[in-house]
Amino acid sequence: MPRFFFHIRDSDSFEIDSEGVEFDSIEDAIVDAKAAAREMMAEMLRAGEPLDGQRFEIADECGRVIEILPFRSVLNLQ
Questions:
Q1: What string of DSSP letters covers 38-78?
Q2: What is the domain range of residue 55?
Q3: Which of 5, 4, 6, 14 is nearest to 52 (CA)?
């Protein structure tokens, strides 16, 4: 099963996910990343922290970024 890494980047910092998580596919990893982004944004809003362009850079086991998921893309704004 492939391992994917959810690095977090914003305007000021870059946090490396050194452990990663195994998923059956990149599609499954993206579904999980979207749920995690929603949870993280909710926590940030409750804490009064700014939403500052955070995004997941989902990388494969070779370190290649294969998907960029801006946190704001998971909001259901109308």
A1: HHHHHHHHHTT----S-EEEEE-TTS-EEEEEEGGGG----
A2: 3-74
A3: 14
pTM of the predicted structure, to 2 decimals: 0.89
Tell me the H-state helices in the chain.
Answer: 26-46
Domain count, the chain: 1
For 48-72, what is each residue's pLDDT tens digit? Answer: 988 878 999 999 999 999 999 999 9
Q: How many residues does the chain have?
A: 78
